[in-house]
Amino acid sequence: MISGRGGSGARGARIRPPRRIARPNAPAEGADFDACWELLREALRDIHNKNCSRLSFEELYRAAYKIVLKKKGDELYNRVTKFEEEWFAENVIPKIEQLVTRSLVNIGEDRSAATSANERRQTGEKFLKGLRDTWDDHNMSMNMTADILMYLDRGFTQADPNRVSIFATTIALFRDHILQSKLDATSDRSVVDILISVILDQIDMEREGDVIDRTLIRSCSRMLSCLFQNQLENEHEKLYLVLFEPKFIEASEAYYKAECEHLLRQADASSWLRHTERRLGEETDRCGTTIELETLPKVHQTIDNHLIKSHLDEFLALDVTGLRWMIDNDKFNDLSILYRLVSRIDEDKTALKNIVQRRVMELGHEIEKTLKGIDFSMGLAEGEEGGEGDKKPLNPAAQQTAAAIRWVDDVLRLKDKFDAILKECFQEDLVLQAAVSKSFTEFINVFSRCTEYVSLFIDENLKRGIRGKTEAEVDIVLEKAIVLIRYLQDRDLFQTYYQRHLARRLLHNKSESHDVEKQIISRMKQELGQQFTSKFEGMFRDLVTSSELTTGYRDHMNVAGEGEKTIDLNISVLTTNYWPAEVMGRSTQIGAESRVTCTYPREVSRLQASFEQFYLSSRNGRKLTWIGTTGSADVKCVFPAIPGKSGALAKERRYEINVPTFGMVVLLLFNDLEDGASLSFEEIQAKTSISTNDLMRTLTAIAVAPKSRVLAKEPLTKSIKPGDKFTFNNSFLSKTVRIKAPLINAVSKVEDSTERKTTEDKANQSRAHVVDAAIVRIMKSRKELSHAQLVSEVLNVLVGRFKPDVSLIKKRIEDLITREYLERPDEDGAPSMYRYVA
């Protein structure tokens, strides 16, 4: 027995006629057509009856061979076809008719007519098994028939291109006489309609959770894939694709549309997500094991359209379980599923992106609102680490600084939250990353103090925050700082604040690590360019130069001093352009050039003159200006024993007090006074020439601060006012020998409204020059531009430094025209054109 289709297409070698074998019952050589056909007809009957053991392939092949040689191939072809049709009518169709019961018909017409799902399943499986068995018998029989009639295909069928093989003709009889046969004369439904209805019903039962015979349904779907709509046998005209698949997709659309509406009524986005993903997996499995795999893209598209796309916005907008709820409650599994589902229907993830952006903005604004409701007067805010004993009252400046640190910490926590979502749930999708970054940039820059707060955050960390941390932990802090800087638009303002804070850290030895300071400056340089960090780098160069100068001056004094005892001097020579005006002793008012003055004691003046002579001896064209607001001095104080007192006060006490430079100048005034004598605020100011504000800060450090109250003040208040009187505090007592007076002006604090206005005015003045330079550079290279083009290019050039207002750009253009850097062409029709004037 040979399985497989007959014809030359199924054999690689040429089949020769078998040798003649004399058999008593075989037809003679000259036997006629009827004898050969009778032999073949009986063989076909035996094949259908599965009684093939006595059949001889050679004998049957020779009979067909002889008929074809006698030019009777056409008649043989027709008789075989007719025999199979008769066989169907007598032996197959009656069996199929018995399978088609009324309950089976109801499955396709009205499923409610069936008593239960179990009855429908059993009835359907009985029909499918009968049809499958009939198909398997017919398919096997037609394969064997094609084998014995192989020469019919070779010698007759292939001679006519329009004639199909005997196998194709006979196998198609199943389609014509079984599948396409009507149920009865009055019905327009055929067996294949019932077949498709039963398969769809079985699939729906499986979708509802029942167990079905997948192998049985797969056999029936393969049957439809083996049969074609006509004898041409085009791949795209298989009955599976033409009849079954469209109805399967139509039924799936109706099923999933109703299911989605049911899920929407439940208002549970989490259940919808998990259910939809499960359905996608089920359909993938179904197409691989139950029906054909080529249907998978279409049924997935159906799920995409009806379970995901149709009501996506409604599910995402649900109040209790929607996308906002998932983000707020860190539902990473749900967010991961949501990302995968949305990615199936929209490459840009528009719906997901919009809600995520909006939520970032909302949470960002909530940070600002929450900040206004927090009481920072007691140090640690509620919910932070530390017990009641750790809370200390804060002055207004410290409260503002604490608020700044809190705002930045909250922004960073929000950033960490969305970074985790992007990594764990959104597969670091570039579209969503850009959307989140845009939202952070928007809400951060809406907050007017963002640049100052970011600088204060870095300042706080570099002073105390990195203490005790590992290198990896420090690197995380630096990276967070750079991320915040990256979001800032007014980077020139940030540069101003950072310069001030860095100057205070360096000059007052507040920095925890100069290496870390240089690391963050290096990262800023990589991110923002060399021009942004040039002043910061200059500050460190000044400190290195100052250290070398101090060492050189000490060596010089050791040689020239001839063993005399001198004041130990540690000098910092600062380059004016690198350091902020406030640190350099200049007035903060715009355009003011006056420096802070002071009348130093004779000892200090001699020391200043000595250093200046040493410094200028090797440098020409330099000028040194002494700044008393930033330095400090170690002063040895002797407190005499107080008669009538006991304990420590009855003894002489010696302390070494570190005070601001101006504090040292004030204290030396009391060396020339008699015991118990006092100096008023006005007298001190007249003798020292220190400005009122600076003198108030200085006296606060040495007459009000409890741990360094070297001077006694009348009246005993916590504020310094003109008219106050000061005397040497003979009863001063301290547990430590070395005492450090607070540096009142060294504290990094949030600016008040007046200081903020001054900073912004100075920034605007600087921005005008920057915009001028940008316009001139652009016009010099382009020669002529329209107004819109020039404004656009200026905005692009300055985006890394700040975001200028269009009104500022217009104003600077007009100013440059007035100063004859630009001109408007005289040509008609070009009123908004500008030309560079060489």
Task: Please write out the topology.
Elements: H1 33-48, H2 57-69, H3 73-99, H4 102-109, H5 117-148, H6 150-155, H7 166-179, H8 191-207, H9 214-226, H10 239-266, H11 269-289, H12 296-309, H13 312-316, H14 323-328, H15 332-345, H16 350-372, H17 396-424, H18 430-446, H19 450-465, H20 471-487, H21 491-507, H22 514-528, H23 530-560, H24 602-616, E1 632-639, E2 653-660, H25 661-669, E3 678-680, H26 681-688, H27 692-703, E4 711-714, E5 725-728, E6 738-740, H28 753-782, E7 784-786, H29 787-798, H30 806-818, E8 822-823, E9 833-836
Parallel strand pairs: 2-6
Antiparallel strand pairs: 1-2, 3-5, 4-5, 7-9, 8-9
GO molecular function, one term: ubiquitin protein ligase binding
InterPro entries: Cullin (IPR045093), Cullin-like_AB (IPR059120), Cullin_homology (IPR016158), Cullin_homology_sf (IPR036317), Cullin_N (IPR001373), Cullin_neddylation_domain (IPR019559), Cullin_repeat-like_dom_sf (IPR016159), WH-like_DNA-bd_sf (IPR036388)
Protein name: Cullin
Q: What does this 3D model show about the protein?
A:
The protein folds into four domains: 205 residues, Cullin Repeats (5 helical Cullin repeat like, Up-down Bundle); 189 residues; 165 residues, Ribosomal Protein S5, domain 2 (2-Layer Sandwich), CATH 3.30.230.130; 84 residues, Winged helix-like DNA-binding domain superfamily/Winged helix DNA-binding domain (Arc Repressor Mutant, subunit A). It is built from 30 helices and nine strands. A three-stranded mixed β-sheet has the order 1-2-6. α11 crosses α15 and α28 packs across α30. The N terminus is likely disordered.
